[in-house]
């Protein structure tokens, strides 16, 4: 099923024409309405009339998270304040929160894109959605909420936390769809088991998981434990919130990015140069329809690639690959670049481990060091010490072989790594500042 057939299956040449028209309109609008952009454009010698093709977007200056912080809170609004009906803020994972504003039309577009995303995941009006994304300044909860309502599904606005109660309500209400972070879905699973509920008796069919990086191996783990199809959703508050890109249930691989609303580029994060289609780099997004706070060439810091291969679901919008991580999450251990998600893949392929881990980065002399703390599963925990030591050696050897770095492995007791209702904290940085 497709929610908005006309826009989601538009032939690519038509889609690109629409993008160009919207880009030209946007550039003119911000040039005349947002002093920040006018100044930035002038510094690079750019006038709105210079944008003649979609490719010309590369002449526009980037917008960075720091620009949002410098203009905190409302300095990037492109409409009079009375037209702004809502504000959200990013969860501030990497520093001071950044603020976003929405007009009524922005809120409506967001709801429609979320509805599109739900339908791409196989959700219909007859589904009951247990929405455990946090409600509040964080965009996850309300974003999914409005999308579900205009789709006509039933939404349970449970928000994050109170995990025991969540499990009880899931048993009583029989939701067919679960929305939360991938890590929280496993916490719900554990809590259900501890409360004597077999999740296989619940009616869950579809999980819509995002807001943090996760791997294919984590997907397998979650699908097996929760007995549902786990789909990946991507978004960020600066651009809109959840529903910027969504995996379709037909392919269940890579996420359609809604190109009639977002223009995407992939750049080399070190040089800022555009990379050829299909290469891995930093995702840059220009919002094509946002009114209150449009962003030009926003550097998301998220690392991915564009998959231009037509999807068997019939949608013509390109897909982005599962996010590897943020460029600022990349660890450099003895000169080798490592993403936490690469470690996750190796851990989850190792028998005897539970899918809960944390990476501790520290410094010894001039060298950064990495310790991987990972929980062992219940069965293994009662095993002999020498078995555990053998397992540590094995993981260490695998990480050395696949990633080329030597790390310390510490197996820890079941349920000792902190659980959260939102984004899991995977990296603890103990390096002296
Ligand atoms: P914050 O930057 O404070 O975490 P947001 O709550 O807006 O703010 O989170 C957006 C970020 O979350 C994205 O830029 C990305 O790094 C991460 N993210 C969102 N969805 C996914 C996903 N499906 N896979 C990996 N990372 C994701
Ligand atoms: Zn598809």
Can you walk me through this structure?
The protein contains twelve helices and 21 strands. The protein has 433 residues and is of the alpha/beta class. Strands 4-3-5-6-7-8-9-14-13 form a nine-stranded mixed sheet. It has a four-stranded antiparallel sheet with strand order 10-11-12-15, with no helix packed on it. β8 (241-247) and β9 form a beta hairpin. α5 (104-120) packs across α6 (139-151) and α8 (182-194) runs parallel beside α9 (216-226). The longest helix is centred in the first third of the chain and has 22 residues, at 12-33. The protein is globular. 43% of the residues are buried. The chain binds adenosine-5'-diphosphate and zinc ion (ZN).
Strand numbers in spatial order across the main sheet? 4-3-5-6-7-8-9-14-13
Report the CATH topology name of the largest domain: Rossmann fold
Helix percent band: 25-40%
Number of domains: 2
End-to-end separation: 51 Å
The overall strand count is: 21
- Considering the protein shown, what is the CATH homologous superfamily of the largest domain? ANL, N-terminal domain
- Note the total helix count: 12
CATH class of the largest domain: Alpha Beta
Label the structural class.
alpha/beta
Tell me the Rg in angstroms: 22 Å
Label the CATH architecture of the largest domain. Answer: 3-Layer(aba) Sandwich
Largest sheet: 9 strands, mixed
Poorly predicted spans: none
Keywords:
single chain, 433 residues, alpha/beta, Rossmann fold, GMP Synthetase, Chain A, domain 3, 2 domains, 12 helices, binds zinc ion
